[in-house]
Amino acid sequence: MKNKILLLIEDELDLAEVTKMRLEKEGYKVLTVPSGEAALDLIQKNLPDLILLDLLLLGMRGEELCRKLKSNDRLKTIPVILFTASVSNIPEVVKNVGADGYIMKPFDPTELIEKIKKLIGK
């Protein structure tokens, strides 16, 4: 069985590295990029099984990127978990952009892994 590929789009490099290490411990292959633009380039070359998407990115914001992914026939089935600390109406944002869930920062690693397993398994 091949490892599931997760794409983490996070501009806080320390948080991205800690999250990547935790997810790799669970057996996932994790790719990280700091921006929506870099994510679009990477996705064209290497389709991930799931995307963890920070909402507050420089340049293209997470909401815009999620809408682009979910409106693309080739990419719309990839589950997207919004990864954020500062959105008070996150359930509404999830619905509006077509995401498959969310996790608030600071996050519980066990909760994150459970959400990922629920969406794509191990």
Backbone shape: globular
What's the pLDDT, averaged over the residues?
A: 93
How much helical structure, as a percent, in the residues? 40-55%
Gyration radius over CA = 13 Å
Strand segment count? 5
What is the CATH class designation?
Alpha Beta
Strand content: 15-25%
Superfamily (CATH H level) name: Response regulator
The name of the CATH architecture is 3-Layer(aba) Sandwich
Strand order of the largest sheet: 2-1-3-4-5
Low-confidence residue ranges: none
Structural class: alpha/beta
Number of helices: 5
Q: Can you summarize the main beta sheet?
A: 5 strands, parallel
Integer tally of domains:
1
Order of helices and strands: EHEHEHEHEH
Distance between the termini: 9 Å
According to CATH, what is the topology? Rossmann fold
Quaternary organisation of the protein chains: single chain
Characterization of this structure:
This protein has helices spanning 13-25, 36-45, 62-70, 90-97, 109-120; strands spanning 5-9, 29-33, 50-54, 80-84, 101-104. The chain is globular, with a radius of gyration of 13 Å. The N and C termini lie close together (9 Å). A five-stranded parallel beta sheet has the order 2-1-3-4-5, with helices on both faces. Strand 3 (50-54), helix 3 (62-70) and strand 4 form a beta-alpha-beta unit. With 122 residues, it is an alpha/beta fold. It is built from five helices and five strands. The relative contact order is 0.18. The model has no long low-confidence stretch (mean pLDDT 93). It has a single domain (5-106), classed as Rossmann fold.
